[in-house]
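Record type: ASSEMBLY
Status: queued
Input:
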Amino acid sequence: MTALPPPAEPTPPGVASWRIQIEREPASPAFALRAEQELLDDVRDGKLPPIFRIWQASRCIVVPHHLIDLPLFAGATAAMAALGWPVLPRPSGGSPVPLMPGILNLSFVYPIAANTAWGLEVAYRHLLDPLRQALRDFGLPTQIGEVKGSLCAGRFDLAVAGGKIAGTAQRRRSGGRHGSSVILAHATLWVAPQIEVVCAAIASFLAALGRPAEFRRDAMTSLAAELGDQRSPEHLTNEFADALLATMEARRAVSAAGPAASRAVPGPAYRPPSCRA
Amino acid sequence: MVSVTIPADMWAEDMEGVISAWLFEDGDKVREGDLIAEVMVEKTSYDLTAPAAGILRILVAPDVPFRRGAEVARIE
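Status: finished
Output:
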């Protein structure tokens, strides 16, 4: 049987293709976040084309900038660093979230011309589109919507069977040529993190800040948990990254060939070994 | 005096945003184009830049909700 791929979400206006960049080895958090900022600047200034980036970072907690001003921030940061969880600020929305091997990050970075209608919701759906396709290829249907009680809950959470598996955020910067702006749309997918360990670390950090931990462990899930998978976190993370790449390549092929090709693309973009006949 | 307003097209949807952080203090001197605040809506961070040079007068505190078009500061 030849299955047609589901229709993709709209592509950002003016973006003809993506430079696909994959970084399989976890980078230091400072390096990874600096690279993200540099990509944002370079795409905004026209030095780089639109980019789709898959990356991982070593263990840390990233926080929105506004938390830095809290009186307990320095002490909380020092306490978490002593526990092996360095804390780094990041200029995007949300609340404290972990990065670590087993958590896969996806970033789309692209310019938007002035006076172009490309709202928050359509940008979030575009971001989640390849993730949803890749998860479908692993046999996991997903839903978009806030997962109450999850870590850093938002209206564009991605859930599997009611558990949050990916979170999202955006950063939009102005100052590009001819009044354009640049968008960083970012998702973190929990492939195979130790969920209890991660939740405990975030709860400890919030407690040190004097803030309540408004999330529950049972609102979170991961790809490994959903698959009941015994493969190593590294193996599964690489396999899912491959699935994402295949999804993006399939989208690119359809886009390059024009609308008629979308009716001729065979089957899912990627079939993990565990699902192959 | 120049108003610092949230552009009507900053986000398309009919949602409320907040100032997550002012990057200058009330009464600070700013230059035209300076990044003066981060605006947050639906876990999305936007830049807010100074439309003119002068002394910043903050009208809206962090985490107070507003809609597009709201005046959040003035530059004298």
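Annotation: The first strand of chain B starts at residue 2 and ends at 5.
Annotation: Residues 5 and 71 of chain B are 4 Å apart (CA to CA).
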